[in-house]
Amino acid sequence: xxxxxxxxxxxxxxxxxxxxxxxxxxxxxxxxxxxxxxxxxxxxxxxxxxxxxxxxxxxxxxxxxxxxxxxxxxxxxxxxxxxxxxxxxxxxxxxxxxxxxxxxxxxxxxxxxxxxxxxxxxxxxxxxxxxxxxxxxxxxxxxxxxxxxxxxxxxxxxxxxxxxxxxxxxxxxxxxxxxxxxxxxxxxxxxxxxxxxxxxxxxxxxxxxxxxxxxxxxxxxxxxxxxxxxxxxxxxxxxxxxxxxxxxxxxxxxxxxxxxxxxxxxxxxxxxxxxxxxxxxxxxxxxxxxxxxxxxxxxxxxxxxxxxxxxx
Length: 312
Hints:
With 312 residues, the protein is an alpha/beta fold. It has eleven helices and 13 strands. The strands form three sheets. The protein has a six-stranded mixed β-sheet. A five-stranded mixed β-sheet has the order 4-3-5-13-6, sandwiched between helices. The protein has a two-stranded antiparallel ribbon with strand order 1-2.
């Protein structure tokens, strides 16, 4: 039985709403509903009654929630013992995509480490499948994967096959990132067809589980740009964009300080199937450490700051 589901149930009891609980837990409402259904199937009775008033605990559900809360409190005491034993070393590991708001959240998190104590931080930027394998192989405790929403079923099936848990962090539209000197920089909302004559910068290791096609983003082979620069490191993409004004790149919303530093702009575009998701993945039964929770908090702050900005 996954005790993380206990936390989910307690949050639903507190908010009396699956939707509100999902927001507080930074996960998608369908995923939370599925987790609670799995928990109810495991224990053999309904924890909540869903009606017009929200999610109300049943009689047995109230009794279960008492036990669940006690179990989580005992587990927290155990975690405190473990953390006290290792209090001189700060351990954290994550495999993640090349996303600037994620990097900004990590930088904020790293800045709050106790520099008087030992620090053992392990970070890798890579594609979704590599991240999933990193978590499966215990190379990293946490992973963040990014995928196009239209391929979500492939990823969720793959995570299920690998017995990994997942919580949604953010769903967003990709934006076209380019120099302020780009010929299309003054277009408030870009037309996809106008980008084809310019050079696309793209990360060269994007793959989707169960699919072998190399070109997945575009609606047809004719729509694929003929001019491309493939990158495998995030750090040099901004120099290329600012130094070669005829280039552009598809990105999650970028923090304003990076746009200012490299003299870049980001623009909405009418590209089809332009919904993407960032999802936190971890092994079933994994218990978040205090540093894990702090990172998630700082990541959420970074996401919220970026999401409130105007894109043009």
